[in-house]
Write a structure and sequence with these properties.
single chain, Cyclic Phosphodiesterase, Chain: A, globular
Length: 177
């Protein structure tokens, strides 16, 4: 069994910007997420048998979407799961459509999507114990050009994410001068 999820995987520049912001938050009381693991989950199939991975790959290969810019401009906290995260105050239509298209294709593999509203976010810390709401000024522009199937691998007290495959999104149309 493999623990799998579909995600937006940041390019090096975006990852570095997120990391620099996270490092500036020196008062984080919780387990900080390693920069190598920063991502935004699109869909979470969870524990998947090896024999079913090919069907997920085929389904994802049928997803069509357009690239977009995602602006990370908010710091927030999921109270129930005690996660501090970086998110966006505006969810681009292309991201909503990508998630919808992906879940539609995955439904053909027997995957049942979550019923909770989709909240795109980059987890910065888990087991966050600071009672006050996190604060910080953020404005990170993330050029989203693809999405990935990622495997979560546990070992030696840590979790590492490994990209199994990525699929490109159509280039954004540039406005005429």
């Amino acid at each position: 069994m493999s623990r799998l999820f579909f995600a937006l995987w940041p390019d090096d520049t975006t990852r570095k910007s997120i990391e620099q912001f996270a490092e500036s938050m020196n008062n984080i009381r919780g387990k900080k997420v390693q920069a190598a693991n920063f991502h935004i989950t699109l869909s979470f199939p969870g524990e998947v048998e090896a024999s079913r991975i090919d069907s997920l790959l085929r389904a994802a290969g049928g997803v069509r979407g357009q690239g977009f810019e995602l602006v990370l401009d908010k710091l927030d906290y999921f109270y129930r799961s005690r996660i501090m995260y970086m998110g966006c105050s505006h969810i681009p239509g292309q991201l909503k459509q990508l998630v919808c298209n992906l879940e539609e294709k995955l439904a053909g593999c027997g995957y049942v999507p979550e019923k909770r509203p989709y909240t795109p976010h980059v987890t910065l810390a888990r087991k966050y114990s600071q009672p006050a709401h996190p604060r910080g000024v953020i404005n990170i522009a993330w050029p989203v050009k693809n999405f990935s199937l990622v495997e979560s691998r546990s070992g030696a007290g840590s979790v590492r994410y490994h990209v199994l495959q990525s699929w490109p999104l159509r280039a954004r149309l540039q406005p005429l001068p």
